[in-house]
Design goal:
InterPro entries: HDACs, His_deacetylse_dom, His_deacetylse_dom_sf, Ureohydrolase_dom_sf. Helices cover about 40% and strands about 15% of the residues. The chain has about 350 residues and is of the alpha/beta class. The protein has a single domain (about 5-345), classed as Arginase, Chain A (3-Layer(aba) Sandwich). The strands form two sheets. An eight-stranded parallel sheet has the order 2-1-5-10-9-6-7-8, sandwiched between helices. Strand 6, helix 6 and strand 7 (about 180-190) form a beta-alpha-beta unit. The protein is globular and about 55 Å long.
């Protein structure tokens, strides 16, 4: 059995972003219940999260911004940070615990306690910019995780893969001029937040280290599998990351209320199998999934369980690994064909595609 870690903690449910908000504690309740129903106790190793401190948050966020979020814990009621993003008095503590959960998982991977992991945390993070909360996000969990890999574990190259329905504008901004962090994103486009065009490739000497594959609504399992096989895999082979961090958004599920994609269990299995293979090939299997969006309870359960099953499976488990691998090998883009061809055309200037 592979040693696979998960970060789960009931304190993540203390963040309440207002009544009837889609980014609710019910999301984690559904995931945690599904894990308890689908896995026995010793299949997954629990990783204890910690709070991230001010200095660590300051790696990616401005001091004044951190203080403004911290100040919300002294108020009696909700604080509206942007039209979609609301904090309650517990939100600052929960958000720093989310970041610290990513740090703890990276520590567990780097020390060999686990081979790979999944941070089942909230609030999400990939929209949070250095100076701004947006899109339900307070602090950028995945960007701070990449900085933690660099500053604490001295890793040279980190690859961030973002398959959330929405483009991770905050993550892209954090590393747009850096060559040692490669940011790759698939996302519905045009759609919130409006960033992530093919031509957004990085700046200066870091051109090519931001890879966007904006997609029309209606893309499904074969489209995503083909993109990961034909675009991401060769880039990863050339970049040779020391670790792969994944912004895992399940709002690409076919029944998600905010999305327009058609991904099912088969697609999530193929995406995760592709990433596992990339990690095993390039960085000794170092792979960490971090929860972002997903607002269908069925979609969250389906996606997370599909990924965890791929993570815990060994090569002897043919029915799990073999099916996903075969699907990847045979996948062809349909709705995504033009966008994939355009992304390959743009990125050919920087990578051998």
């Amino acid at each position: 059995m592979k040693k696979i870690g998960i970060v789960r903690d009931n304190r993540y449910m203390d963040h309440i972003p207002g009544p009837s908000h889609v980014e609710s504690p019910e999301r984690l309740k559904a995931i945690y219940q599904a894990i308890d129903e689908c896995f026995v106790h010793d299949e997954l190793i629990n990783i204890e999260p910690r709070q991230a401190n001010f200095e660590e948050l300051n790696w990616n966020h401005y001091a004044n911004y951190i203080k403004s979020i911290e100040a919300t814990q002294n108020r009696q009621d909700f604080t509206t940070l942007d039209p979609d993003t609301i904090a309650c008095p517990e939100s600052f503590s929960v958000a720093t615990l989310a970041v610290g959960g990513v740090f703890a998982a990276i520590d567990a991977i780097m020390t060999g306690k686990v081979e790979a992991g999944f941070c089942l945390i909230r609030p999400p993070g990939h929209h949070a910019e250095p100076d701004r909360a947006m899109g339900f996000c307070l602090f950028n969990n995945i960007a701070l995780g990449a900085y933690y890999c660099q500053k604490v574990h001295s890793l040279d190259r980190c690859m961030i893969v973002d398959f959330d329905l929405h483009h991770g504008n905050g993550t892209q901004r954090s590393f747009y001029s850096q060559k040692n962090v490669l940011y790759f994103s698939t996302h519905q486009y045009p759609y919130y937040p409006g960033t992530g065009a093919h031509t957004e490739v990085g700046s200066g000497s870091a051109k090519g280290f931001t890879v966007n594959c904006p997609l029309p609504a209606g893309c499904g399992d074969q489209d995503y599998a083909a993109i990961f096989k034909l675009l991401l895999d060769p880039i990863c082979s050339s970049f040779k990351p020391d670790i792969i961090l994944v912004s895992a958004g399940f709002d690409i599920f076919w029944q998600d209320p905010l999305g327009g994609m058609n991904v099912t269990e088969k697609g999530f299995s193929a995406i995760s199998r592709a990433l596992i293979t990339m990690a095993e090939t390039t960085c000794n299997g170092r792979l960490l999934f971090v929860l972002e969006g997903g607002y269908s309870m069925d979609g969250l359960k389906t996606g997370v369980i599909s990924i965890l099953r791929q993570l815990v499976s060994r090569k002897e488990d043919d029915s799990v690994i073999k099916d996903a691998t075969k699907f990847l090998e045979e996948a062809q883009p349909f709705a995504a064909r033009q966008s994939l061809e355009k992304a390959i055309g743009v990125q050919k200037s920087y990578w051998d595609l």
